Amino acid sequence: MIKFRQKPVITEDDIRRDVEKLGRRAFLRGSLSLGGLAMLTGCNLSTDSGADAALKSMLKFDDKIQSMLFDPERLAQTYPASAITDPFRFNAYYPDWQVRPVPDDWKLEVAGDVANKSSWTIDALRNMPQESQITRHICIEGWSQIGQWSGVPLHFFLRTIGADLRARYVKFICFDDYTTSIDMASALHPQTILALDFLEKPLTPEWGAPVRLRIPTKLGFKSAKHIRVIEVSNDYSGGYWEDQGYDWFAGV
Amino acid sequence: MKNPARTRVRAAHPLPIRIMHWINVYAVSCMLFSGWEIYNASPDLPFTFPQWATLGGWLGGALAWHLSAMWLLVFNGAAYLLYGIYTGHFRRDLAVPSPRAILRDMGAALRFRLGHRIGHYNAVQRLFYVGVICILVVEVLTGLSIWKPVQLDALVSLFGGFPLARNIHLAMMLLIVGFIVVHLVLVAIVPKTLVSMFKTVPVDRQEAAND
Q1: Which 137-196 residues of chain A touch chain B by CB within 8 A?
Q2: Potential cystine with B148: which of A89, B70, B152, B164 (Cβ 3.0-4.6 Å)?
Q3: Do you know which SUPFAM superfamilies this protein is assigned to (chain A) (predicted)?
């Protein structure tokens, strides 16, 4: 390659500070302008190319293809205990020293199109049927690791609370301010569980105590930790990463 | 093989090939530059790609590019393969050469004695072009494997599981970059080939002595 280094007028770091304050649209636009620098030298950063709108509609199209590809019967591969990744890598949208302990008054609340809106304690969840799995957790960044989780199958939980199973979305609100949402078909998948245990021990704060989603048919950022509210609804509500530009369906 | 009866001049590269070539240049560029940004999010090799060479600005933007440009790459690639099969382009121009022809032309190339005739591919060129087409096919298949490792589990096991499929995807990318470097160097040595990829240039009339 020819030794040629183009100095962008605005570096990625300069932009990042600003775009983090803005929404997903601005985030994509800022990134696209950088793409413009890489693709077309001399591209002006102040120009709104409209390519961000094109990319967003492509992601929506991809989501449609992904939900068509999703087979509710197909199971994610399971592994023997010997395949479990050790040590297991911590991952969150914040560093591990910012992990929050479980609030004293924690209860699992349910909301939206559900018949029984009473909240749930950990003991009540432990009294439900438990399902264990050793599956691969795949991060959107490309790395992956194999872990063991067990807990209540989400389809069982949703039926128990009398959720409208024809609703389109199941949303998760977490006490660490994380949010995500998934489609109902994926929520009812047999391997989608409300995990209470990791490596056969009750979840500790770093692994999402007291209850987290474990959904091996989606990328890791869908497996929300520290769940506080489960909401069943027909209204699309995105999520922490989805609102910044990760594709919403995120199926694997 | 002389064919003086032929009235129409055969272009070195028919118009559809030229169009598909430049669409492919754009699609592969988008895939490479956005792919490097995705790679940078979790680098498996002891290096990362410089920010100026990446597309998308951050992981989410890069994935949006990667998962958009993949359609262009796949549909253009499929059109090219169908075109190549049905028009006889593959059979006529890209027949896999014999090992002896490869050795002969490779030897000539290394001694800078391999002539270049517009519209004809020597054994080394054939090897390179057929090779990079196969590499692109593997790149697309491993890409699909790591995009949908659960739904396409048969494909991912063909490549030895998710982590290996991802590494093969990366290795094929490096081979594609290698191809592009050699390709561009050769175009720089024989600039008239670049012209023939833009406008209609008739094939060199003298036929190959050894083909």
Answers
A1: 138-144
A2: B152
A3: Oxidoreductase molybdopterin-binding domain
